[in-house]
Amino acid sequence: AQALAGSRPLLGAWGPCMKRPPTEGEDVQPMDAKRPKEEVEHALLVKVLQPSQPPKDKLSVASVGQFLEDEANRLAKAQPAKGLEEALQFLARGWRRSEEGGVVPSTWGGIQPLQEAILTTGLTMMVSASTEDKVKALTGLMDSPVPARLMNELLSAAAEDEGVPARLLIGVATPLKGRHLNDPRGPQFNKLLRVLRASKTYASALVQPPCLEEVFKPVFEPKFVWRNRKKEVIAKQRPGHHLQTRSLLGWVLSPTALDGACMPPSMAHLSEAGSSEWADLHRATRQRVDNLQRGTQLKLTAVQGQAAELVDVLLRAGDAPRFCALQWLGAMLTSAEPRGKQGYVAPEGFNFWPQHGNHVIDVLNHDQTPPFEKSLKNLLLLQALHAKMHGFPTSGAALNMMTLLLHLCKPIKPDQAASLSAYYPMRQDVEDLMGNWTKEARFGEKAQEELAREVAKQDPIFTCPPSDKSLFKNQIFWMACKGIGVLLLPVIKEAFYCFQGIAGHFVEKDRNTADTAWREYLLAESSLKEPAFMERLGHLVDLTFRFLCHVAAGGQKALPPPAPSSEWHALPSTILENVLDLCDLYRERRKVSSIPTGLFVHLDPTPVLTTLCVVMASDDHVRDPSLRGRSVKLLHRLCMGFPSWQEKLNQEPLLKHLIPCLINVFIAVEKAIMSYYDLSYRYKYELRVPVMELFDLTLQHQEHRKVLDEFVRGPGNDRFLKLLTQLINDSNSQTEEAIRTVKEWHKSQADEAAGVVPQPPQQPQQQPGGQHDEQVLDDDQTDGGEDVYRRSRMNYKEHAKKYFELASRTWKTLWLLCRHCAPVIVEGRTSLEQLLHTSLDAQLYFLVGPEMKSIKSSPQEYDELGFDPKGLVKQIAEIYLFLARVNREEVARIVAKDERYYSSTTFSKAVSFVRKYSLLADSQLAEFEALVKELGERVSQQRAAFDEADIPAEYLCEMMADIMSDPVQFPQSKKIVDRWVAVRQIMGADRDPYSNTPVKVEDLIPLTKLKEEIHRFAKDKGIALEGGNMFD
Q1: What was the pLDDT predicted at 789?
Q2: Which of 55, 218, 363, 566 could hold 452 in an S-S bridge, CB 3.0 to 4.6 Å?
Q3: Of 485, 482, 486, nearest to 433 (Cα)?
Q4: Is 978 helix (H, G, I), strand (E, B) or coil?
Q5: pLDDT, tens digit, 9 for 90 and up, residues 963-974
Q6: What is the pTM of this model?
Q7: What is the pLDDT of residues 378-392, one digit of tens each?
Q8: Which among 138, 145, 147, 141 has a CA at the least distance from the CA of 115?
Q9: CA triplet 922, 928, 929: central angle to 5 degrees?
């Protein structure tokens, strides 16, 4: 009441108000103003230190050091077993209370001297203690809230005792063994990190005995050895799994969303795959799945961040810790090499991803599969056992390790790609880090590779010692590039190919199998599409493309591709193969986005597209036609998926060089290595589809058409005519294959209806595409009833539909090139004759001639098969017009020579067909009708002249049995043919068709004397020759 009334005595008793200034005349004194300074100091020190016994003398800042020493020694003697720890705990409490609010005023000047006295006393006791006492005390202190500076100083002081670092590290590292995603043992990890950060001495001790053998890189002796029939050792157990389960970095990297099969049954519920949260996924909503994945990603990023912190400390601690950490990573990379190979297919092996997971689906479906192997969970368990036997890291640990490598690559800036060395993998002392990449196939041939080794000796990166700090950037980059192939791609392919495929295949057949597969896919996706992971992976991919582009250009402009340098010849071809696979796996398959998404947000399109164009264009850079075909396929998918990338095709440097690149790669894939089961060259055709669609896209722009015209009239004429030849061959083969398949389908249906052939037996093993239609004979089956040739058999309808689609695409490109390049085609008379005889004339014969009856069907069936005879006839008629407008006389002469497919009746039917369905405009129809009429007259005259002339046998082509206009001789087989025939053969295969030996156009031997005789004979008899008569 007095306070509310403003009573002065009551206010004076409690001190001045903190919220208002004193009134005039008010005498304000500090709370302890009347107490002597010595008493205040003593009271504050006692309040902070809280000694168990009152001090005998008054404490002061000046004398507190002696008191601390005496009190600490008293506590140490009171409990001999934990004396040092108790004494240090007493000091730590005092330090901590001196910083706590409410204990002492924060402005008190004694805080700093008190902390220095505490630190001096603690260091004195630590230095004077025995090794065992130091380790015990530090271990106990790390379980208490000791101030950071005091703890670090104590750890640094203890590190000077040679016996402390190793014992302390082993004590704090061992509890991390067995940690998992739901129990990452964060406090124990923080202890380890605190010790290592306190002094570089600890990091050095970690990679030296005894820590090296006990926790960092335990000694490994292979327990499994594989021998051949001669008892020779062909493989040994690798150390990867041993390091994963028994080393410090392995324990740190082990917590993962995958690898549920590695958990003991009693702990299976602690894994993500075994938890109740991830059960019954077939009932889960999209929102629930997203929440589960986000939760998993948070736990994963925390664990991966811990691993990055630990390795960062080791890398900064000096040469020895850095090199040992790299050697550990290299051992894991080398151990993971079997996972990146096509073999070892489950269940006999450990890889699920070969054959896009179809083999695993076959195993789970097959009636003869043992019951144990018909369970996907058991197959995952077998994979875990294989990991232990073969010694490779499990999928989850491999993914965490790849994340660590991506973290280490992040400091390498994009503009530093040019400073990376292509010669590093050729060093003889990097096998521990790079494994078989030191022996990997390279872009250069053997002689070029040897020359590259000589040139590499001038590169400092190639010659400096392996522990040199300047190597680190190259070491990390190349290890990350290798990690893509052996750590990352196997996991991605298992998830995106196998697990997703199994989930879709068994969703109605076996819900448990589908749930297991779907759970494995979603858990893998949580890691593979985590935003931070995608960003770092995108950085590495972008860096790789920049590096490849720089090396391919050799310091010059990348396009047109210059001659490859020794740097390019030194590169392992796997680096390109891996990055192509990775980009293809991460591309969005379901929708077209206006902006790049996912991985491609982090890529610069210019170096990516430029590198792909260099690979497509130059067989000097990349000899493998399949790899060049995959490059154009990726370029096509990226440009079709992202319109912003597509715009780059119409800008420099691609604007002037894309068309030549497309022509070169189209020719190259002719020699692509195909599967044993690819009896109809489907792989080659599918590699060419992206090229043709890019032709269709680019030739819509005037600038690209101008480039095409300049190229085919100039340096690229031979290559263009070779492309045209292969395009003609493809269109003929695809159309014939489709029509043949339709005929067989109709025949099988008719036979089945008539009861001539029994129904093919139902096979226990079906392909994902559906049951094939061919009959399986007894000789085609194993003892277990398995169809040996099931992969090469076809579903008639699907097969015909596929080849009609391919033929339609090829004919469209052929029409497009004839439209824009008709003068060049007519001038190249070899290709013109092939186009007219084997393609245009032949297709009219099949479409409107006698052969049409054999494939005549309903419009509905044509629609189902994708067969459009009207559109094809229209394209053929327009191609005739494109060519005739250039040189009507030459076109008529060549058509007149065709005695196999040309018929005036067939061409008249074609005119009627075009008129009936209004396929051409009136002016075009009249032009086509006049051309057909002229062809009929010309053929009558030409055939009459041939009938009247008795042509000598030596004037006839040995291949075509037609009179020659320019006879040449093959150098190896000595066969004499017309030049256009020889050129066509060389364009198709680059070989002598009789001796099957390599040959070039310039190797052909001209027969001038025979040519003169033939031309004189033709002049006398009135026979028209190709290119005209030399005596006209």
Answers
A1: 42
A2: 566
A3: 482
A4: strand
A5: 899 999 999 999
A6: 0.86
A7: 999 999 999 999 999
A8: 147
A9: 90
C-alpha of 514 from chain center: 26
Instruction: List the one residue out of 736, 727, 732 whose CA is nearest residue 670.
Output: 727
What residues contact 384, with CB distance under 8 A and at least 6 apart? 259, 261, 262, 394
Order of all β-strands in the sheet with 1005-1006 = 976-978, 967-969, 1005-1006
> Are β-strands 967-969 and 976-978 bridged in parallel, bridged antiparallel, or unpaired?
antiparallel
Q: Give which of 163, 194, 207, 421 is closest to 310, Cα–Cα.
A: 194
User: How many Å apart are CA 64 and CA 45, to the nearest integer?
Assistant: 8
- Phi/psi at 916 (nearest 5 deg)? -60, -40
| CA 30 vs CA 13, 14, 27, 48, 248: distances in Å | 12, 11, 10, 21, 58
Portion of the chain with pLDDT greater than 70, in percent: 91
For the beta carbon of residue 175, count every other beta carbon within 10 angstroms: 15
Q: What is the largest CA-CA distance in the chain?
A: 147
List 236's β-bridge partners, or say none. 225
Could you count the other beta carbons within 10 Å of the beta carbon of residue 96? Answer: 17
Q: CA 91, 95, 97: angle at the middle one, nearest 5?
A: 115
Q: Among residues 311, 335, 314, 531, which one has the least CA distance to residue 407?
A: 311
pLDDT exceeds 90 at position 773: no
Peptide bond into 210 cis (omega under 30): yes
Q: What SS3 state is found at 180?
A: strand
Q: State the pLDDT at residue 11.
A: 35
Nearest C-alpha neighbor of 541 from the set 579, 489, 596, 515: 579
Tokens of 651: 């800008």
Backbone phi, psi, residue 59, to 5°:
-90, 145
pLDDT of residue 677: 54
**What is d(CA 798, CA 865) in angstroms, rounded to the nearest whole number?**
8
Q: Which residue has the tokens 């390109």?
A: 576
| Best CA proximity match to 174, nearest among 82, 102, 252, 234 | 252
- Residue 540, both tokens: 């590495």
Mean per-residue pLDDT of the chain: 87
Q: Which amino acid is it at 608? A: V
Query: The tokens of 1019 are what?
Result: 């002049």
Other beta carbons within 10 angstroms of residue 272's beta carbon come to 26
**Torsion over CA of 840, 845, 846 and 847, rounded to 10 degrees?**
80
The answer to whether 379 and 346 are in contact (CB under 8 A) is: yes
3-state secondary structure 678-742: CCCCHHHHHHHHHHHHHHHHHCCCHHHHHHHHHHHHCCCHHHHHHHHHHHHHHHHHHHHHHHHHH
Q: Backbone phi, then psi, for 861, in 5-degree steps? A: -70, -40
Closest-CA residue to 661 (of 676, 681, 639, 683): 639
| Rounded alpha-carbon distances, angstroms, from residue 194 to 11, 142, 187, 377, 400 | 51, 9, 10, 40, 22
CA 538 to chain centre: 11
CA angle centred on 426, ends 423 and 431, rounded to 5° = 130
Between strands 967-969 and 1005-1006, the pairing is antiparallel
Which residues does 650 contact at the CB level (< 8 Å), separation at least 6?
A: 701, 703, 704
